UniProtKB/TrEMBL annotation:
It holds the Pfam family FA_hydroxylase. The keyword Transmembrane applies. This is Fatty acid hydroxylase domain-containing protein. GO terms for molecular function: iron ion binding; oxidoreductase activity.
């Protein structure tokens, strides 16, 4: 046989018009040498069985993101039947980008206004509005600032969501896809919190650098005594930078899609909670959890308590401050003192017969 004389030859099945012959193609050589016919084609055809081939899925279909769960629901119930023409396929890039822009802005507004309203009416202590550093029309101003910033923040955020939808992240659908199963699911939740807490600490601290602060972060510090609606009242660059760790995590570490969605909602709840004026923290967790009392001191004293969930990085970075509200020196204590001195009338503070709300605060 010729095949024994060809070094590194590859056998290829070649169908001629009437017979199946075996050809030898030498590696690195364009020439082909054919062997003696093995058997007629009609004998081969009678032995061939049809093997069903399942359609392959694209990378974006097999991996995708949390947002493809939202997109699927929106497409099925609203966008496909009522919004987009049939010529726009659901997996088309342009359609996905437009849909993500709409859904991201709608979701951000619902979470911010909905959760903020619940916190404002049921948790926030309205007595804090009597504090001399609570601004005139502050709640309205916080909402206006946030609602003008969120659409701008959504632009780079949607770029990251689109990359997730197209399958570039490590998000997965089923628990059995996790290397460690349910244990891996639990560990990914813990690592998400630790990763984002550490990243936000350093981003937040960077935003307080004297060359950066006035450009991007100072608008958030206008709210010395924040309400829940101050939670998202950021400059767009500030808001995107502090939200970035949540979005890049699944590009580095495996994470279940549904857990990612749950953590995203949790992050919004937590962000509102540390601005809600409810300073209560379980005694055993005071030194560990960065609650509203800790974060209010950050707004008041500027250089302390940069952390998001935990006090760990503030302790390591030398920026931890025990909450003044837990030492009898917080905003409520000042209000009670002013009331006792007769300087608090109605919803305004009177010092020497004047309203100090219009007095400029110390420049930071």
């Amino acid at each position: 046989m010729m095949s024994s004389r060809l070094s590194g030859a590859q056998r290829e099945g070649c169908l001629s018009a009437d017979i199946l012959i075996v050809c030898l193609r030498s590696e690195g050589d364009a020439s082909t040498v054919c062997e003696t016919p093995l058997f007629p084609k009609h004998q081969l055809v009678s032995k061939v069985e049809t093997v069903p081939v399942e359609p392959t899925q694209t990378n974006s279909q097999t991996q995708g993101s949390t947002m493809d769960l939202v997109l699927n629901v929106a497409d099925h119930y609203v966008l496909t039947p009522y919004v987009y023409p049939a010529s726009w396929p659901e997996d088309g890039a342009l359609r996905q980008i437009v849909s993500l822009l709409v859904l991201t802005n709608l979701g951000a507004a619902v979470l911010y206004l909905g959760l903020g309203a619940i916190s404002y009416f049921f948790i926030f202590d309205h007595t804090l509005m009597k504090h001399p550093q609570f601004l005139q029309n502050q709640v309205r101003r916080e909402i206006k600032y946030a609602m003008t910033s969120l659409p701008v923040i959504s632009l780079p955020t949607v770029a990251l969501f689109f990359a997730e939808v197209r399958g570039f992240s490590k998000l997965y659908d089923n628990v059995d896809e996790s290397p460690l199963g349910w244990t891996g699911l639990f560990l990914s939740m813990i690592s998400f919190l630790l990763f984002t807490d550490g990243c936000i600490y350093w981003i937040h601290r960077f935003l307080h650098h004297k060359l950066i602060y006035k450009l991007f972060h100072k608008p958030h510090h206008i709210w010395k005594i924040p309400s829940p609606f101050a939670s998202h009242a950021f400059h767009p660059v500030d808001g995107f930078m502090q939200g970035l760790p949540y979005h890049i995590y699944p590009f580095f570490f495996p994470l279940h899609k549904v857990l990612y969605l749950a953590l995203y909602v949790f992050v919004n709840i937590w962000t509102i909670s540390i601005h809600d004026g409810d300073y209560r923290v379980p005694g055993a967790l005071t030194e560990v959890i960065n609650g509203s009392a800790h974060h209010t001191d950050h707004h008041l004293f500027f250089d302390y308590n940069y952390g998001q969930y935990f006090t760990l990085w503030d302790r390591l970075g030398g920026s931890y401050r025990h909450p003044s509200a837990l030492m009898g020196k917080g905003p409520h204590d000042l209000i009670r003192k002013l009331q006792a001195e007769g300087k608090l009338g109605g919803d305004r503070v009177k010092v020497n017969g004047h309203n100090p709300r219009g007095v400029p605060l110390k420049e930071e």
